[in-house]
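Subject: complex prediction, re-run

Hi both,

The earlier run crashed halfway through, so I resubmitted it with identical inputs.
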Amino acid sequence: MIDHFKLRKLFEEFYTSNKHVEVPPIPLVPKDDPTTLFTGSGMQQLVPYLLGEIHPLGTRLYDIQRCFRSQDIDDIGDNRHTLLFEMVGNWSLGDYFKTEQLTWIFGFLVNTLHLDPNKLYVTAFVGEDGLPQDADSIEIWKKEFAKVGIKADIGNHIYLYDATKNWWSRAGVPAKMPAGEPGGPDSEIFFEFTQVEHDAKFGEKCHPNCDCGRFLEICNSVFMQYKKMPDGSFEPLPKQNVDFGGGFERFIMAMENNSDMFETSLYTPIIKEIEKITGLSYSDEKNKPAMRIIADHLKASVFLIKDGVLPSNKEQGYVLRRLLRRLTVKLRKLLGKLPSPEEVALISTQVLKMYEGVYFNVEEDIKLVSPIIKDEIKKFSASLEKGLKEIEKIEKIDGKIAFDLYQSYGMPVEISRELFLEKGQEIDSKTFLEAFAKHRGLSRSASAGKFKGGLADQSEQTIKYHTATHLLHQVLFDVLGKDIRQEGSNITGERLRFDFYHTQKPTEEELKKVSGIINEKIAKALPVEFKIIPKQEAEKLGAKSFFREKYPDMVKVYFIGDYSKEFCGGPHVKNTSEIGSFTIMKCEKIGNNLFRIYAK
Ligand SMILES: [Zn+2]
Ligand SMILES: [Zn+2]
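This time it finished cleanly. Structure:
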């Protein structure tokens, strides 16, 4: 049997034999991403390169990236969705195209993973809006299936769909793309669980994109092939890219031929521990949704903590807090009483053990993870019973009351919603979410097209802020002292944000000095350039790096005049004068020795 350790090895061998270089995965909390709280796909760190930047490691790249998508929280409880997952990715940056990509991955699935080709189905773009059908992919697929003795054709192992399913661009379907925007068709591979009967409520006939559960999308190859022209037509891109994404856990589901991810080897150790603690059986249908949520949320929590997230009332920390609290409520329901913090920590230890040597060192990490989990459960347990009593008294729930429950008893919205549903109160989830969105800024989106990726916002303004962030990093170093260490950064079209460790809060005086120097550097119109050099050389130069990130042997270093040097993928402005001006709006303490600056 191929376990997850072996699967990692096989992917590595597969990609290196095809001359790919590994891009080291990034932490779950990305350092320089303008648009998201978490790393949600393998291609996230490749975005600048897919848009034309030169990658230091060349034109054939791959990685296995841990990902977290909090917007999928409503899907958790079914048999295939999880907040935490790993994504296998490979990229051609103007190198190979459709023939290599599709031939390689099909060969890997059939010959290396020994998946039965009779259970593999593929999709391609049908053609619309003046764009042709993806005939190249269809021809390649016919040949590949023929090699394994299957006479595939459209409607038989090959299925065509419109742009809503088989087209990729940042803006969506071709008609929505602005002029100059890159886009192209994609081709997915599905695995068929023949033991799952089609359910007629999803349509008369079953097909790969049917939602009945018989078919599972395991991977997707996106072909960045065209550019939209000002007259609305499409021209081939001068440099065509491939962006491939596959679900690591889904490859395991296919190999183990199990349509329930929580029954695969990637979840059974966690589920078994939950069974042990609750004395209940996962095979009992009525326990499944709660046990899946507990297993999923706890696994995600362990990974988040390892990547530096602590429970709090803001952003990533708030997401972690909700996960730990929600799983506590689920455990309480199964047990009929509050779980002990030690019991929850015991389940989390199973997560550490499963990924020993890949993501964790059990002996070390148990000391990091267990106390944080226990502490949060203890805190929440104290108010949970009171909150539950309060909920019993409430006659009619609304968004305002839900928010008060959170404020007074730390009851996350999902929990209130579920508890009131149990009381038979149909809750208008829109009101709930609006009340919360106001305070939390959380967004929801569909999880369809899971492996399609999404290029982040790269507006001119965010690029300016990115260069300004590098300046700020260096200036803080010069003004506050060499002990400062970057913890994170986040950029939107409206402002930049920079988190750093320092022994004391910077004074007004110091902050004034910081903005003054940055504006000086802007006025000097310093050139911004990059060099691709060996990591050791970059370290010798004193280029700033991010301590949570593992860098490859060759790195890209951005230089701002001779003032700042930093490990970074870009993109940046060409000259600091483009930034215009720099103002610090706020500096606040957000943790122990941890400070946050907002600037624009
Ligand atoms: Zn179906
Ligand atoms: Zn940067």
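Residues 362-393 form the longest helix (32 residues).

- K.
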